């Protein structure tokens, strides 16, 4: 079974530029998450989708971050304009969405460096 | 809101020695608790999970954790450390909303194995 796919793995941009990250979840997984992991910290949830609807985006900086999950499958996370503090690894995860599992499957992440 | 606190950002043990990584949780409802492991430049992988069945949970690679409600703890142990156990370990708690599970992670503990 293929895992969660993310691209690009690495991206270096200058501040105020824009960047987009792509995620393809495990086939059949209804729930998709984007987490931000800053160096030395635990992952922080940015946004959660259930199929193509947003369940929770309370911690997404909406003035610069946006995400979409068209057709309820793959997803794109965009940052525009980027700030220095956005340097982090952006992790995509998916789950079946069933009540009693709670297990998330993570991709390898997209590492963003903002200069 | 649920949260977890991991005591000790860095832990070093000798190869063959006991591994003990500490996690305390705060939750207003009976929690689901998880331990994830992250190897360098990789995503997170589930080690084990507690979902209100047995309080002693066994996971992959001989890791286990015990849920102690009286101490609000979910410490991770392994009887004998191996060099391949060197990684970052994250404790997490789940928001058990119906079909709406999401994880809140601790800040992580980096485990170093001394040859």
Descriptive report:
The complex is a heterodimer of chains A (115) and B (115). With 115 residues, chain A is an all-beta fold. Chain A contains no helices and eleven strands. Chain A has strands spanning 5-7, 10-13, 19-24, 31-37, 44-50, 53-56, 65-68, 75-79, 88-95, 105-106, 110-114. In chain A, the strands form two sheets. In chain A, strands 2, 4, 5, 6, 9, 10 and 11 form a seven-stranded mixed β-sheet that branches. In chain A, strands 1-3-8-7 form a four-stranded antiparallel β-sheet, with no helix packed on it. Chain B is an all-beta fold and 115 residues long. Chain B has no helices and eleven strands. In chain B, a hairpin with a 5-residue loop joins strand 4 (32-38) and strand 5 (44-50). Chain B is globular, with a radius of gyration of 14 Å. The interface between A and B is medium-sized, with 28 and 27 residues.
Span between termini of chain B = 41 Å
Q: Report the radius of gyration of chain A as a whole number of Å.
A: 13 Å
Ends distance of chain A: 37 Å
Mean pLDDT of chain B: 90
The ordered string of helix (H) and strand (E) elements of chain A is: EEEEEEEEEEE
Name the biggest interface. A-B, 28 and 27 residues
Categorize the overall geometry of chain A. globular
**Number of strand elements of chain B:** 11
Helical segment count of chain A: 0
Along the chain, the helix and strand elements of chain B come as: EEEEEEEEEEE
Q: State Rg of chain B.
A: 14 Å
Structural class of chain A: mainly beta
- The helical percent of chain B reads under 10%
- Category by helix and strand content of chain B: mainly beta
Oligomer: heterodimer
Estimated helix fraction of chain A: under 10%
For the report, how would you describe the main beta sheet of chain B? 6 strands, mixed
Low-confidence stretches of chain B: none
């Amino acid at each position: 079974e293929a895992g969660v796919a993310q691209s690009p793995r690495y991206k270096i941009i200058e501040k105020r530029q824009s960047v987009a990250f792509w995620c393809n979840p495990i086939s059949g997984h209804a729930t998709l998450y984007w987490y931000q992991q800053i160096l030395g910290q635990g992952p922080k949830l940015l946004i959660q989708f259930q199929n193509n609807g947003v369940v929770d985006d309370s911690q997404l900086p909406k003035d610069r971050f946006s995400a979409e999950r068209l057709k309820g499958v793959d997803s794109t996370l965009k940052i525009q304009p980027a700030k220095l503090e956005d340097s982090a690894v952006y992790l995509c995860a998916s789950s079946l969405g069933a009540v009693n599992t709670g297990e998330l499957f993570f991709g390898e992440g997209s590492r963003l460096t903002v200069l | 809101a649920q949260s977890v606190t991991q005591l000790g950002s860095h832990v070093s043990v000798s190869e063959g020695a006991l591994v003990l990584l500490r996690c305390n949780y705060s939750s207003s409802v009976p929690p689901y608790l998880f331990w994830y492991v992250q190897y360098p430049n990789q995503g997170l992988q589930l080690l084990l999970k507690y979902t209100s069945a047995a309080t002693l949970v066994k996971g992959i690679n001989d890791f286990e954790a015990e849920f102690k409600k009286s101490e609000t703890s979910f410490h991770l142990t392994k009887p004998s450390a191996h060099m391949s156990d060197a990684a970052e370990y994250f404790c997490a708690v789940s928001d058990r909303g119906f079909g709406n599970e999401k994880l809140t992670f601790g800040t992580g503990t980096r485990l170093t194995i001394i040859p």
